[in-house]
Amino acid sequence: MRKERGLTVRLIAENCYQLERSRGSNGYVVSGNGSTAVIDPGMRGGYNGLLEELRDAEPVIGPVTHILLTHYDADHSRVVKQLQQTLGVPVWLGAADAAILRGEVPPPTRFRRFLARVLPTEYPAQVREVTGEQGIFEGLTTFPTPGHTPGHLAFQFGEVLFSGDAVRVSKAGELRQFYRLPISDKAQALRTEESLRARIAGGGVRWICAGHNAPARTGTGRG
Fold it and tell me: What is the distance between the alpha carbons of residues 37 and 158, in angstroms, rounded to a whole number?
């Protein structure tokens, strides 16, 4: 990866960037065909730096038109309401996670119920709930990857796969299960891991960008 000259965003692949000033999880940006999406903007403490970074990068990435959440965890989503109010753009979130964030369904484990009490995330406006695989804009798709949370999503833009916390990713691009405590459903998480392996093995994925690991080249992306 390299930094765009004069900017803090780091180029991963064509039109795909990693944010440097978001806080919590890794934040990413993809842009193309007049649309720009921020993926997992992170914690509230990063709001000012994140907004400045996005505005500084606008000549390269364009104005933000979508906010995408892989899941509802606070380290990925707690800034989303404030950011959505500022930018006035839709937020994409898995339907099962949206129900939890609205308080209609309780978090699925005791640990997650504890997290909801100590790190509550406010529900944003203009939420577009995702229930299956669908396109967001040309070249960018989302699909369910449940297990870590019931409504967890992954996003793919060209040859770059954004996996959130569905899996951990080694420097060599190998997939591993996420830490057990925050996993909502272990059986689902294992099925998701296998489905991601199959997607990568099928070709077309050269980079995998996880929530808490550095972007890594996949086995199909080497050489």
Answer: 14
In tens digits, the chain (223 residues) has pLDDT values of 555 555 678 999 999 999 999 999 999 999 998 999 999 999 999 999 999 999 999 999 999 999 999 999 999 999 999 999 999 999 999 999 999 999 999 999 999 999 999 999 999 999 999 999 999 999 999 999 999 999 999 999 999 999 999 999 999 999 999 999 999 999 999 999 999 999 999 999 999 999 999 999 997 555 4
Residue type, 58: E
Q: Given the DSSP bridges, would you call strands 140-144 and 216-217 parallel, antiparallel or unpaired?
A: unpaired
Residue 42 DSSP class = B
Q: Tell me the backbone φ, ψ of residue 215, rounded to 5 degrees.
A: -55, 140
The pairing of strands 91-94 and 127-130 is parallel
Residue 9: phi, psi to the nearest 5?
-65, 145
CB-CB contact of 66 with 136 (8 Å): yes
Q: Which residues pair with 154 in a beta bridge?
A: 143
For the entire predicted model, the pTM comes to 0.95
Cβ pair 54, 36 in contact under 8 A: no
- Give CA–CA dist 4/2, Å, rounded: 7
Angle at which helix 47-61 crosses helix 80-87, to 10 degrees, equals 50
Q: How far is 3 from 11, CA to CA, in rounded Å?
A: 6
